[in-house]
Amino acid sequence: MADRLSPTSYVVLGTIALRGPSTSYDLKRAVGRSIGYFWHFPHAQLYSEPQRLAELGLLEAETETEGRRRRTYRLTEEGRAELKAWLAEPTPEHFQMRDIAELKLFFNEVGEPGDVARLAREQVAAHRERIAVYEDMQARYADLDAVAKRMITLRLGLEMEHAALRFWSSLLDEVADGIDETA
Amino acid sequence: MADRLSPTSYVVLGTIALRGPSTSYDLKRAVGRSIGYFWHFPHAQLYSEPQRLAELGLLEAETETEGRRRRTYRLTEEGRAELKAWLAEPTPEHFQMRDIAELKLFFNEVGEPGDVARLAREQVAAHRERIAVYEDMQARYADLDAVAKRMITLRLGLEMEHAALRFWSSLLDEVADGIDETA
DNA sequence: TGCCATACCGTCCGAAGCAGACGGTATGCA
DNA sequence: TGCATACCGTCTGCTTCGGACGGTATGGCA
């Protein structure tokens, strides 16, 4: 059913399934605090996508009449069914990376000698910082049963961050021997 | 200089810098064999983007008159300068992940009990397969000095794949105890 | 009570990204 | 000669994207 939905669609459906009836603004904040860490969605889509889903009958909209023209969306039975079908079906696509740093590293032959070291240093710092953020979240929500099941993706995020950190650190070691020791 | 280029622009610029003068078709194949593994570009853009870059003076186009209307692009001085400036400048963005499997995992509460195990099994297989591909590439080009510098990104790719494999394997262990042992 | 600053919230638009259909060209082999 | 297949480029319609913009509620201070 339903033409074929995009990942964005399922983020909307799924977030509403987890939180209950929500406005676009609610979605925006919820996504910003969770999925947004590994998959970026421009907030404009969290306004347009629910409208589309409502037209498809997967969501039900209720518009406030006074004050802000705020719209609250709730899941329909069809919406929940669509979401569950998606969760149950195979996932053929391999993940994609979108890492500007990796791109730069690939073309490093074209650049100047110091470039790689500078890049590596930056990346080490960035990944360390991100790891701190994740560990903080993990600690904060450690014993909140309500979100325990969601927090599991944090572990994946941490694995990835550590892998990246390991890579850039060792690259830095290899490359920083002697040359360009300046911060 | 130049409004501000997209990652796609730098992929085109960079690939031409590495390979020398190229047609869009050349770019398509070269990208498919390298960067395409971690960052997907639809081939149509490898036709339109060089045209834009030529208008900006970063590339120089030469069109064949007979047979196929093939266009060969070569880097201008401005193009090389732009590329080198990009390589030298800081990289503020953190990588993005786009992993459908991670999305499904995040919403697993909504699904049925067997879903996570099935997902994990799939992912383990997929990452193992990808690791095999990468290791094969690594072995094949191990002693080709010409591409050694590019192959370093493969190491990063492998680190990432291993991290993902570790995560999904251990998740599978945790979740597959007793329930749903069917392939 | 009126005014301002600031957070809150939603819409719009132009540009870029994207998938894939389509159509034309060269090559090889029956 | 004719067909199959690989090679190569273009086009179209749609979605995604970033960010500017504009309106609305709240609280504090004059």
Automatic annotation (TrEMBL), chains A, B:
Transcription regulator PadR C-terminal domain location: 97-170
For this protein, the record's Pfam families field holds: PadR, Vir_act_alpha_C
InterPro entries per the record? Tscrpt_reg_PadR_C, Tscrpt_reg_PadR_N, WH-like_DNA-bd_sf, WH_DNA-bd_sf
Domain Transcription regulator PadR N-terminal residues, every copy: 13-84
What is the protein's name according to its record?
Answer: PadR family transcriptional regulator
- Organism of origin is Actinomycetospora cinnamomea
